[in-house]
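Notes on consecutive records. When two proteins share a document, each keeps its own sequence and its own token line. Never mix them. Below: protein one.
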Amino acid sequence: MESQAFSLLEPLQSFYCFVLFLLTISFFLFSILLLYIQRQKFWCNCEICSSYISSSWSNEFKNLCDWYTHLLQKSKNQTIQIHVLNNTITANPDNVEYILKTRFNNYPKGKPFSMILGDLLGKGIFNVDGDLWIFQRKIATLVLASISIRTYAFELVTNEIKYRLLPLLSSSLANNDTTSNNNSVVDLQGVFRRFSFDNICKFSFGLDPYYLESSLPISQFANAFDLASKLSAERAMAALPLAWKIKRLFNMGTEKRLKKAIEVVNDLAMEVIMQKRKLDLSTENSQDLLSRFMNCISDDNYLRDIVVSFILAGRDTMAAALTTFFFLLAHHPQVVLKIRQEFDQVMSLDQEVLASYNQIREMHYLHAAVNESLRLYPPVQFDSKFAQADDILADGTYVNKGTRVTYHPYAMGRMEKIWGQDFMEFKPERWLKNAMFCPQCQYKYPVFQAGARACLGKELALAEIKMVALSVLSKFDIEIVEPRGAPRFDNGLTAMLRDGLQVLIKERNE
């Protein structure tokens, strides 16, 4: 019996020996790479080649994007190359135009990027190139450009503001003579994340998760989506892709958590799709994005990828944009005053608080303030492509095939060569001429990307930010609990504040 038991254990022991061997080899290779990085010290081939990226960057800079900004500001051509990361990073508008327009076909998202977000986004529009991207882009353009879908989106946002956002903030009011009251402190970023999640789910799925109800309910879908986004972003930030690939292979650590989170997202998304199939909704009687795409696509897995991609794009980016806008407004009361004055000029005295779409379009100073906020704090701080072939950028920088090429909107908003000596000032007036808004070149200001991949939801996003700003500022004063300097961001796909935005909500002081 003992010999039989031993023979049964032999295959199992062999398997564990094989796993141990793989882990040993992986650790050995990882150690070699770390030694190489330490010796290379991340040398950059720019005129400040004495600089290198080390683990101590946080001693001087709050955010990694500030470190890259520092390097790019010192570069004569606003471009640096980090060879050990095989990454060319630029804040040069000429290079951005070259990448996103002139040589668009040579700079796709690429397989490395698709692999990082593939488990979460699948074959969704933001994770594919070629024919798949063209097909989805064409459908999305037809959908988002229609007047009916814009009207539908505006109604959704209006109702979310009127019946949830404003009542929630009203219930959190602090006394005007109170400077610190923990019971009245609100994490405004958390509120905006709930607000944007409700909106994007209603717009994408036709599903209302009631996430901004006054009880602030727990949402399994939202929590799973948050975790999946965060862990996918950690893949993108990893200096050694092999590490997360090994963890995924053996279903361990963060990759195990990511897999479980994505399973929850998939189950709930597929449940919604099946319910839609049963109802057999058509374009005429349903306005949500899923119903529109179902008229063209029969594959449920493909539909899931498309809708999840739109949720990722429309949820955290909106929350990030709103949070940093109110962060800036809290530090610039003169800008708040001008927004309110413009609001009073456009709105009639007997009208309700919420402005109409046409009235919002008349508010040029507000539009300038929103764009100025996005210049300083873009929701997506950088975006990467991968060179298909050897190339030379507009500024003369040579790029090898397979190189990651990154343009950096966060750094571009901090370039004196682009915005002048006052580039760090929050100054909406830089967007105005004779009190009228004047747009900037999209390659100088690629906050909504540019060229063929320019954001289709730009106008809807800007309208939503302005609607929220007007509705809140017309009723409340927002006071940051602990005034601080530049914000500190989480490492992620979007620029979320690490500690949220803790504020006191007060009645507007006339």
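Protein two starts on the next line and is unrelated to protein one.
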Amino acid sequence: MEFWKLFVVALMPVLKVLLITVLGTFLALDRLDILSSETARKNLNTIVFFVFLPALVCGSLAETVTSRSIITLWFMPLNILLTFIIGAALGWLLVKLMRVPHHLQGLVLGCCAAGNLGNLPLIIVPAVCIQRGNPFGDADSCHRKGLAYASLSMAIGTVYIWSIVYNIVRIYSSKITNEVKVDDSMISPDSALENDPENISKDRPHTNHVKQFEIEFTNSIEPTKEPKNEKIMKQLKVLAEKMKLKALFAPATIGAIVGLIIGVVPIFRKILIVNNAPLGVIQDSLVMVGDAGIPAMTLLVGANLIKGLKGLVKQFPIVVGIIVVRFIALPAIGIGIVKGAIHFGLIHPDPLYQFILLLQFALPPAVAMSTITQLFGASEGECSVIMLATYSCAAFSLTLWSTFFMWLVL
């Protein structure tokens, strides 16, 4: 197929995303006062996080993923994991080479590691299938398979983002808050009393009496033996707190697990998914709620870009580094990985499947990065700058890479 025709097919879905993003930016203007305030954006962000995103993941997976498709698509989780690992490694090199400030390191690592595996594939892949002259055959069959591939990509990406990237940003944001607390309390009241010789001489007898009383009290109490079950439960609670399991099982992750269970287990499919299912209205309602997630997330990206216009010059070197990682280095590495997997027979010969595997390496940073930074209140302005620059470049790079990938798999 001619390269120009493939270019037009790849351009249309990207333009759809851009139009919705521009609408979000327009709604964030002060004159309209719809998404201009931080409160409005955070409220919409909360709805997306707790309602739209879990419903979208659960509904899409339940409809399109079956036990057969999971066996066939086993390489996709590994492929997405490789995008995260390689992206994080390249992001770490970027942090070290450019000496990124400590408060931005978590953001840079997250943006390099996590691609937009959610709404972009769900928009781009089905939209490519319905275009005239699409290279993947029958439009209906292509749309059905493309939706299944994109849904699985979104679900796996969601699990990785909210289990890996979420904790990376959380760790760095907690380090920042701890440093601020230390800086704010360089001289505490206790240290001031200790440095005062008069207070030392006055309080020393009192402190000695207190310590002696504590020693006598602890010695007088006999150690009680706890049952083994209680000890095990306490150890599990401590382990859960250290691993932050609540953060690991984010609403979208739970939605992905529920959707996979419904899709894979035949009984649940008969009850909820198949035609004339007894409880099919539940699935229809879930899909209806989830369909609002894609435009809502894209509108939030556009609304957050307003902040990015102000700080673009200041963060220019970091932005350029992230663009190089996400739009040049990762796609080039991805071609080698996917072609190597095809050569060794690890991927079944479906051009559409190979296309989406390649596409996963060329996506801009995940929209969830805006959600994560807003949840922690860390580096929101810098995240807006990165989103503005990367999504502006994605209009060109994603179109060119998509065109090249379609040519490559045919």
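For the record: Confidence is low (pLDDT under 50) at residues 185-207, 213-222.
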